Amino acid sequence: MKRITLFVISLLLFSTAGAFAQKFENESELYPKTVPISHIYNNTKGFRIDYIRQNYTLGTFWAPIEWFRGAASTGAISYGNSAAYPYVTFYYKDGEVDHFRLYLIENPAHETWGFLDPNVDYSGEFPAVDSKPEISF
Q: Beta strand pairing status for 31-43 and 46-52?
């Protein structure tokens, strides 16, 4: 009797483990990572985004304006006035940034907005258009 009970229990354990190991059909391949934005600076060539890392230090990434153009763009912007704004969500696929979305306050006079000096050439700061943002958390 003990052998039968042990056999039934082990059969149940092994059969349920296989069911949970399967990948679900609607499971996403993307992993989102959201961080708050301290400041965002606007320029004709793009944006400089200062974000807050996990250790409460500032990180910066530059986003060329071309990243926000087209249907399959690297970046997207959503404007709003929620208390959570501004923040950025990076979507990772296979360990690399696939795309990102900026959630920005609609009013450009808000304290989180800033403008880069139009007389300074920031071309060297912006990454190549065909690259992806490099972020450190």
A: antiparallel
Report yes or no: 105 and 82 within 8 Å, Cβ to Cβ: no
70 phi, psi to nearest 5 deg: 95, 165
What b/e readout covers 69-107, taking b as 16+ CB neighbours within 10 angstroms?
A: eeeeebbeeeeeeeeebbbbebebeeeebebbbbbbbee
DSSP state of 126: S
Helix, strand and coil in the chain, % to nearest 5: 20, 40, 45
**What Rg do the C-alpha atoms of the chain give, in angstroms?**
23
Q: What are 77's two structure tokens?
A: 């912007």
3-state class of 50 per DSSP?
A: strand
- Residue-averaged pLDDT of the chain: 87
How many Cα atoms occupy the beta-carbon half-sphere of 75 within 13 Å? Answer: 21
Q: Is 19 helix (H, G, I), strand (E, B) or coil?
A: helix
Q: For residue 16, what pLDDT is reported? A: 61
CB 83 within 8 A of CB 64: no
Q: Does the pLDDT of residue 11 top 80, yes or no?
A: no
